[in-house]
């Protein structure tokens, strides 16, 4: 009786190992096949502009998509320039929004918020920045958020 139970236990373990090995070898469902597409880290973002201080509760004025790999694309009006700007800043969104042009803006409080959500070079991204008013937004949005 013990030898039967032991052999059943070993055969169950062997079947489970075979199933796990088969799943691991096949890869995740829907994964891109090996080839030129798998050479690039994914870079796909959704960018938005909202009226208000908090993008979660503000009114979305505009939103675009931007994909930078394997080539620039999306609904962004200038995807190649936006991808180049983001690459030049090494994916640092804050370097784009805080390194704006030096122009004189009024000090009115009429906030506008930008967000970037998605994946940049294989890393999950969630970025938010609030500008004091539309003038500050135009001065600091760069090409990336200038849509």
SSE inventory with pairings:
Blueprint: H1 2-26, E1 44-51, E2 59-67, H2 79-88, H3 93-98, E3 112-120, E4 123-131, H4 134-140
Antiparallel strand pairs: 1-2, 1-3, 3-4
Low-confidence runs (pLDDT<50, min 5 residues)? 1-36
| Helix residue percentage | 25-40%
What is the global morphology? Answer: globular
How much of the residues is beta strand, in percent? 15-25%
Helix/strand order:
HEEHHEEH
Strand tally: 4
Going by helix content, strand content and strand pairing, the class is alpha+beta
- Which sheet architecture does the biggest sheet show? 4 strands, antiparallel
Average pLDDT metric:
79
Distance between the termini: 75 Å
Give me some keywords for this one:
147 residues; alpha+beta; 4 strands; 33% helix; globular
Q: What is the compact description of this entry?
A:
This protein has 147 residues and is α+β, with helices and mostly antiparallel strands.
Task: Give an overview in words.
This protein is α+β, with helices and mostly antiparallel strands. 33% of the residues lie in helices and 24% in strands. The protein has a four-stranded antiparallel beta sheet. The chain is globular, with a radius of gyration of 24 Å.
């Amino acid at each position: 009786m013990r030898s039967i139970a032991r052999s059943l236990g070993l055969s169950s373990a062997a079947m489970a190992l075979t199933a796990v090995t088969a799943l691991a070898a096949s890869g995740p469902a829907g994964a891109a096949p090996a080839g030129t597409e798998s050479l690039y880290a994914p870079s796909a973002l959704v960018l938005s502009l909202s009226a208000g201080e908090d993008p979660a509760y503000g009114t979305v004025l505009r939103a675009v998509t931007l994909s930078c790999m394997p080539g620039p694309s999306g609904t962004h009006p200038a995807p190649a320039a936006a991808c180049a700007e983001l690459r030049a800043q090494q994916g640092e969104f804050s370097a784009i929004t805080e390194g704006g042009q030096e122009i004189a803006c009024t000090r009115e409080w009429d906030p506008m918020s930008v967000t970037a959500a998605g994946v940049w070079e294989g890393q999950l991204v969630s970025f938010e920045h609030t500008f004091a008013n539309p003038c500050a937004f135009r001065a600091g949005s760069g090409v990336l958020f200038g849509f």
